[in-house]
Amino acid sequence: MALPAWLQPRYRKNTYLFIYYLIQFCGHSWIFTNMTVRFFSFGEDSMVDTFYAIGLVMRVCQSVSLLELLHICVGIEPNHLLPRFLQLTERIIILFVVITSQEEVQEKYVVCVLFIFWNLLDMVRYTYSMLSVIGISYAVLTWLSQTLWMPIYPLCVLAEAFAIYQSLPYFESSGTYSTELPFDLAIYFPYVLKMYLMMLFIGMYFTYSHLYSERRDVLQGFPVKKKKV
């Protein structure tokens, strides 16, 4: 006897993914709406305390997004592990290591810019993924989800690099994460961040190439209108 639809593994998987995407969409939508309202209410002053106003929700959303690596590993989400890993680690390092650990960096305009870029990408991506799980597809949304990242993702990486650059003096003066090791060795964290800057752009090239190939595969089925001669 066939199992009821709600007991079938595929149904449960899609239900779980839909709820996950919905939660992420709501979180990022709240952040973006909050930032927009605050900007129109307080102007540039709202950019200075962006992290204090919405930093907690952003940290929760980014922490929960690590589940996507598990989704890929167990096969319930059809993505490649390495590109997604690079994208997530970029944000986790910038958000938790660079911004959260240095109060002076939290007041920089670059934090507001980063949050705007991250939320624009994620609102579109999670909307597209959420509807795809339940079999709904819109050509405009599909095109947007596969195209919006092309200008914004490089800008994200530039903003992340600028955040690291602005944080270096504070890491140098405070000694945060710098530690001494046995045998007269030491880890000087500003040097680690400078090395990560180079890795950041190498990872951007790899991720951009992967996303571009994915975009080509997804959009190749789009109807192309031929001009009449």
Give a written overview of the molecule.
The chain has 229 residues and is mainly α. Helix content is 76%, strand content 3%. It contains ten helices and two strands; from the N terminus they run H-H-H-H-H-H-H-H-H-E-E-H. It has helices at 9-42, 45-48, 50-64, 67-74, 81-99, 103-106, 109-133, 139-147, 149-174, 189-219; strands at 179-181, 185-187. The chain has a two-stranded antiparallel ribbon with strand order 1-2. Helix 8 (139-147) runs antiparallel to helix 10 (189-219) and helix 9 (149-174) runs antiparallel to helix 10 (189-219). It is globular, with a radius of gyration of 20 Å. The termini are far apart. Keywords: Endoplasmic reticulum, Fatty acid biosynthesis, Fatty acid metabolism, Lipid biosynthesis, Lipid metabolism, Lyase, Membrane, Transmembrane, Transmembrane helix. This is Very-long-chain (3R)-3-hydroxyacyl-CoA dehydratase. The chain crosses the membrane at residues 15-32, 140-165, 185-206. Its EC number is 4.2.1.134. It is a multi-pass membrane protein.
Protein topology:
Elements: H1 9-42, H2 45-48, H3 50-64, H4 67-74, H5 81-99, H6 103-106, H7 109-133, H8 139-147, H9 149-174, E1 179-181, E2 185-187, H10 189-219
Antiparallel strand pairs: 1-2
Quickly describe the structure:
It is built from ten helices and two strands; from the N terminus they run αααααααααββα. It has 229 residues and is mostly helical. A hairpin with a 3-residue loop joins β1 (179-181) and β2 (185-187).
